[in-house]
Specification:
about 0% strand; mainly alpha; I/LWEQ domain; disordered N terminus
Amino acid sequence: MLGRVSHLQASRGGHRHRPWVAPLAPRSPEEVHRAATPLELFFDLVIVVAVAQAARGLHHALSEGHFGSGVLMYSMVFFGVWWAWVNFTWFASAYDNDDVVYRLLVLLQLTGALVFAAGIPSFEHGDRRVGVSGYVLMRLALVTLWLRAAKADPPRRRALRRYALGVFLVQVAWTALLLLPRELGFVGFWTLAAVELLVPAWAERAARTSWHPEHIAERYGLFTLITLGESILAASVAVRSATEAGASAIGLLPIIAGGLLIVFSFWWLYFERPGHEVLTSVRAAFVWGYGHYFVLGAAAAVGAGLAVAVDHATQGAGISDLAAGATVAVPVAVYLVCLWFLHARSERSFAARVVTPALVAGVLLTPFTKQAVLFTGLLMAGLTAFKAQQAARHRGVIG
């Protein structure tokens, strides 16, 4: 069987015809130079459409002063986007034979993602039918993949069947949730979200799937990159709209400069430490993988916050200066705290123990100034410069 898989992998270079159906056997976690496939990259591009819809809804809610309901709705919508991506990513890291059936099932998941994205606006107004339909379509396509993998991987068959059964039953529950009154939607949503998060833990107790640490780290890094790109796009669209409406571009320079410093620092700090160094056990993988819900959610929310800051500076949106500044400062603080917890809390450096937590406190104080975005960006740039200097000094000591 493994010989047939190797034969199939060799065919990816185009030397042989791709079969319609091949055994969905596990890939080796020791495989060298494991990189994201074109299909995985395509999946990311489709998912970012849903991320953009979620961030756009948050932007409008914050601009109108609906902070509690806006953040709550955003956290629910982003969970659906993020969780569907997470499940496909970890599955593909362990099982990816790239046969025709595999590709078709992944494309079916992408179709579900587009339906989900199309249903986000109506979901935010209480109509959950389109969004849930797209989500369930994504998840049921993955159930089929789990069953295919179970057939080809006897040592892990029990775990893979647990994945398939758990995901299927939760999708039945999501569908039943549509029948409940709208008032029970919030409780029902987070109850089922918690069950979704428990399914992998339950399945992995039977046997560990053969996910690839370097591949997982690369996939999460790519998702972070496209999320940061969406933040830049959201801010640039807001600036363009403001200038087209007659606002002065010079007056927006503090927001533009601060926004760039924030996003650039996000990128620098995230990739400062290779993610696969943290993925040393199943428990560490769960903490790292699930913790990215807050890292990625905060990264996307910064784009919405920057758009709110532009609206407030040019149109005098119906929120205070303090509230407008908080729409950027709070997600920046969340990003830093979560990244510190995932990547740096095990380090003993002065930066990890003192500087990052202190800077978070400073970021949360910037809304009390007149230029919250600019000062937040400067603080982020200062932290980045400090950690870059520490890293260079560490390399010099080792060298």
